[in-house]
Structure to design on (595 residues):
């Protein structure tokens, strides 16, 4: 089952739309509540990343009986140093973004902690693709 | 008790219902459909919030109640009166008059429910402090909220505080007192005056419990009528009876919004009333979106129990009367005219031993099937059906939304051809006759609405 969501740059007001739709769907499949929470947190973080750092993007969700695969594609600035971006507390967020309560530098580490597989493809000046997979049986 | 059995006090009188869809459109859990021209309730989705009762223009939605005469099945007849009952009466009627009349219409004892609210608060706060990891802890005071969480937010069931409601504590206390005074347990009949349908449902099939603490429930509007009529017709009052001083000033307003919240001092807590507001907030809580949340007081009705569907009069006026009463009581407490220490606290130990409710289990209405693979097939089918529907949410199919129809079709409770847009398309193709469409509509809306009024004119 395939679904897509558009993420608009700077639109923090609507952050969470994709994760909350995904939650609604997963609740119907009798999936463990803790697992749903993890997925929601990971997708939400990725949504906020795309809103804050990239120039918006698209979220592709593919769902089957065994797993959920979420791909977030943006045409943003790319991540110059993935290793640093994965460090807790490291953030390149602007003062404006931090003022809004985002940009604590927990985004990528938080995603990693909540998913089974995480794959980041990024190219500076071109964009970033974050692919995350959560298996329902694991 | 059968786990699938849940008593519902909300009923629809099919003789009065004319299938207007207002209840269906306002139901927060999409539990209502129109069939054969009448509103019908999916019992496993209903949480007894009473929104349907509030909006019904014809009075077809009603609240089942115990027969008043059933109080005479008992020798010792006790009435448990929530503070909100006193708030119904105009300012010129005194609490002592209400107490006095109640004892004259058949009851031997009157006791105010909120007498135990203080102890309830102590035990809840203790539980909250001891269960830091389960935060936020959610009050179980409002039974419609407990049921809402069971069916719609199963992930939050463990956050519910498993402590009995004040009405249960007070009932347990009185039963003990009467038995100590020599009453035969079988002769004791404890009746609760309820401001809403959810409290009836909670009493008839208590969540997490097998037996109810009360023997019967009387609807607040019925009792209001009986008591007010007596007061109006009376010239003199039995002077001997004065209002009991069972309740402290802060507990008199326990059932109002903020009533519980103001009795604790957690860093971050919210008091939210009105079921749609509650749902909106719980969606956020479920996502762990709000940090360091300690406690939630959630009530299904706007203005909490003052807005209960069985209350009489305007909820803001009721609220104000209760606040005034609390103020007066507080003044008397300050002047030393009445003690804040009430007799019920002498039974603290006994009540504490009986304070916990059993396990509150989720009973999700969201899960399409226990088996994930079947659920996934159903989900795929619902999405497929939904994509063919017009997304107008026009209600003409007898369901509250296109999504609800898609779900009903996937579960064989409805047909795709119930959709009027589908019918037109099929007629255009020639695969459905107009007569067949009319038949379908008759099944949903009843014969009457499909009468040929134009020709008859």
């Amino acid at each position: 089952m395939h679904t897509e969501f558009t993420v608009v740059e700077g639109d923090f007001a609507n952050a969470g739309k994709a994760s909350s739709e995904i939650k609604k769907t997963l609740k119907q499949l009798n999936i463990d509540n803790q697992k749903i929470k993890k997925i929601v947190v990971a997708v939400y973080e990725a949504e906020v990343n795309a809103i804050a750092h990239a120039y918006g993007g698209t979220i592709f969700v593919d769902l089957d009986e065994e797993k959920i695969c979420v791909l977030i594609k943006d045409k943003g600035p790319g991540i110059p140093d993935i290793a640093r971006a994965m460090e807790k507390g490291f953030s390149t967020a602007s003062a404006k973004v931090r003022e809004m309560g985002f940009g604590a530098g927990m985004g990528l580490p938080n995603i990693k902690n909540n998913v089974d597989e995480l794959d980041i493809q990024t190219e500076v000046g071109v964009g970033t693709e974050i692919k995350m997979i959560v298996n329902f049986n694991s | 008790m059968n786990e699938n059995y849940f008593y519902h006090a909300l009923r629809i009188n099919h003789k009065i219902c004319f299938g207007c869809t207002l209840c269906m459109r306002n139901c927060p859990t999409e539990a209502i459909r129109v069939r054969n021209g009448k509103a019908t309730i999916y019992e496993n989705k209903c949480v007894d919030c009473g929104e349907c009762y509030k909006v019904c223009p014809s009075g077809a939605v009603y609240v089942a109640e115990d027969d008043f005469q059933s109080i005479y099945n008992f020798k010792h007849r006790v009435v448990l009166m929530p503070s909100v009952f006193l708030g119904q009466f105009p300012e010129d009627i005194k609490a002592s008059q209400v107490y006095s009349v109640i004892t004259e219409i058949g009851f031997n004892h009157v006791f105010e429910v909120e007498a135990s609210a203080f102890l309830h608060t102590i035990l809840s706060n203790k539980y909250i402090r001891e269960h830091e990891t389960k935060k936020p802890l959610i009050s179980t005071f409002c039974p419609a909220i407990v049921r809402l969480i069971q069916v719609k937010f199963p992930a939050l069931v463990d956050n519910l505080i498993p402590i009995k409601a004040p009405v249960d504590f007070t009932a347990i206390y009185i039963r003990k007192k009467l038995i100590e005074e020599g009453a035969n347990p079988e002769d004791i009949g404890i009746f609760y005056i309820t401001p809403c349908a959810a409290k009836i449902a909670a009493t008839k099939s208590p969540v997490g419990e097998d037996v109810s603490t009360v023997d019967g429930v009387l609807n607040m509007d019925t009792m209001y009528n009986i008591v007010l009529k007596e007061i109006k017709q009376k010239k003199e009052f039995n002077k001997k009876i004065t209002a009991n001083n069972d309740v402290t000033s802060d507990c008199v307003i326990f059932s109002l919004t903020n009533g519980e919240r103001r009795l604790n001092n957690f860093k971050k807590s919210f008091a939210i009333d009105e079921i749609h507001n509650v749902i909106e907030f719980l969606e956020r809580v479920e996502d762990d979106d709000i940090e360091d949340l300690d406690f939630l007081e959630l009530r299904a009705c706007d203005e909490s129990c003052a807005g209960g569907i069985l209350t009489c009069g305007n909820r803001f006026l009721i609220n104000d009367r209760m606040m005034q009463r609390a103020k007066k009581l507080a003044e008397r407490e300050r002047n030393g005219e009445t003690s804040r220490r009430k007799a019920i606290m002498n039974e603290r130990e006994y009540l504490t031993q009986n304070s916990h409710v059993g396990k509150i289990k989720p009973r999700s209405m969201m899960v399409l099937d226990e088996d994930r693979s079947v659920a996934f097939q159903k989900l795929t089918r619902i999405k497929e059906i939904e994509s063919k529907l017009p997304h107008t949410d026009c209600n003409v199919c007898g369901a509250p939304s296109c999504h609800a129809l898609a779900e009903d079709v996937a579960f064989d409770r409805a047909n795709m051809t119930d959709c009027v847009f589908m019918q037109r398309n099929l007629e255009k193709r020639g695969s459905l006759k107009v007569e067949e469409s009319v038949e379908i509509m008759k099944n949903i809306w009843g014969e009457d609405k499909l009468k040929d009024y134009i020709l008859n004119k």
